[in-house]
Specification:
By secondary structure, this protein is α/β, with parallel strands linked by helices. 37% of the residues lie in helices and 18% in strands. It has 16 helices and 21 strands. Strands 1, 2, 6, 7, 8, 9 and 16 form a seven-stranded mixed sheet that branches. Strands 17-15-10-20-21 form a five-stranded mixed sheet. A four-stranded antiparallel sheet has the order 11-14-13-12. β1, α1 and β2 form a beta-alpha-beta unit. The termini are far apart. Bound molecules: flavin-adenine dinucleotide. Flavin-adenine dinucleotide (FAD) is lined by residues 9-15, 32-35, 37, 40-42, 44-49, 130-131, 154-155, 189-192, 201-202, 205-206, 209, 240, 242, 339, 361-363, 375-379, 382.
Amino acid sequence: MLQHDILVVGGGLAGMRAAVEAAELGLDVGMLSKIHPVRSHSGAAQGGINAALGNREDDTTEAHAFDTVKGSDYIGDQDAIELFADEAPQAIIWLEHMGCIFSRMDDGRIAQRPFGGASFPRTCYCADVTGLVILHTLWEQCQRLNVKVYEEWFATALSVQNGVGSGVVALNVTNGSIEAIRAKATIFATGGAGRSYYKTTNGLSSTGDGMSMAYRAGIPLLDMEFVQFHPTTLKSNGVLMTEGARGEGAYLINALGERFMFKYAPTKGELASRDVVSRAEQTEINEGRGVDGCVFLDLRHLGKQKIMERLPQIRELALDATGIDAIDEPVPITPGMHYWMGGIQTDKHGATPVPGVYAAGECACVSVHGANRLGGNSLLETIVFGKLAARHAADYAARMSAPDFNVRQLESERSRIGAMLANKGGERVNVVRDEMGKAMMEGAGIYRLPASIQVGIDRIRELKQRYKQISLDDKGPVFNTDLTGLLELGFLLDVAETTLAGALRREESRGAHTRLDFPERDDEKWMKHTQARFRPDADPELGDKQVTVTKWQPQARVY
Ligand SMILES: Cc1cc2nc3c(=O)[nH]c(=O)nc-3n(C[C@H](O)[C@H](O)[C@H](O)COP(=O)(O)OP(=O)(O)OC[C@H]3O[C@@H](n4cnc5c(N)ncnc54)[C@H](O)[C@@H]3O)c2cc1C
């Protein structure tokens, strides 16, 4: 049986940061990724990563922590947020020492741009390709440290034996074999689940695998109802136009040419938090001041030189997709599904309630983002909690002998996947996936109503039944993307179900969760996390988890 001290499932920023840390601590590390690590979705991150370096103005880690608490609409755990903000400057310096080429100010210090919801210019960046640059930096470090990489291996189930995590079952996509990989500690870093929506900024690999595997193994998912809609995405293909554009001074305008954001956020305008800006845009569109379901991102006044120097990628993306050159014309944009605030429940060290199982990055809910994530805080989360999860996993692994692996689980995964290949039910992956995506757009969009959430829940229940009848065309063992697509769809349906269930239960409006029938935040009743637990062949069991408050009591949230 394949075996490691630490097994990291995921080769994006959180996974690679965890693998590097564990390898530097001298442990035997395996890292599993269903796609080549540098193709991980982190590579799409554009605008930057937050840290209170104070290079442009007198910023502090306390201000970063408070902005994050306020951004979270007071439901982020404040002990984790303080740790997160305190660790940030060192995380940037570490990345720089590892070779990350950050953009610079004229005096040579790392440049920082303003981002939504931040009191100071705090976002460090590499032009508008920050994720890709950091991803390559970490990949080099994985090579240097000889991390054993299982490239194009697809984890299908988490193994928990005698109440302790003991590794995963995984499909080797290159030859179709299904193997057990035993580990003293397993760290999930499998990214987000944007593909449960019909339209999203997320890549094809963001399918909630780790969230669902942990959930099925008995680990609760937290705050799944909080889904971020990014204010500036292209209508045609959902591609993101970074918040860095507004950070550099771009305007949002409506069909009448008005800069409308100051009506909704009198101080911050375009740089209010994402939930506020997305709702404002949707209101403009709903009230008839949009064009074809869009408002506009206007960069013209920034001038060609600044656009080409700081925002070259988004200019090209808009040009390719719409034929519009942002140097000369405003770009039509719409709010689009972007990020999962909820995920696998962990403490501030990345530990889940099951010993030996950890999670970091977008698949985890630590919770630092609460009901709304601030731009630039997600990349930071991958680096800070990737490192911390690895440290705690390493400490745990050093005290443990190799756990038993439940061989029956390996056999049951082999027969489950064998049955999927043999199924002649006649349903199609793409049909079920598209219907799920539409149910999520309608049930769990920016504005939510109980009737449409309930329609979504009923639809997902029905789709879960139809899922069992899906047949595949490709029955072969080598690079069977028909099969991996089906496995991913199963994971996504779990994510969709827990999200809609949480959205129906939370009778208030907080951060990205806006219930039109309960338009106010209700701290008395709902200042708590939603916990979803798996029940075989039944709806998720929903419960509460207390929010940790250290020094900031909830206040009215105005930008
Ligand atoms: C377009 C875009 C722009 C963004 N820009 C920014 C930004 O500027 N700043 C910011 O802070 N945030 C940004 N974000 C958010 C941020 O990029 C992500 O939240 C973050 O990169 C997620 O990193 P991760 O390591 O958790 O996951 P990912 O990078 O998605 O990596 C997941 C890894 O898990 C692997 N995996 C998944 N399932 C399995 C499985 N079953 N078996 C094996 N391997 C598996 C994948 O192969 C991959 O290697 C942006 C997001 C998008 C979509």
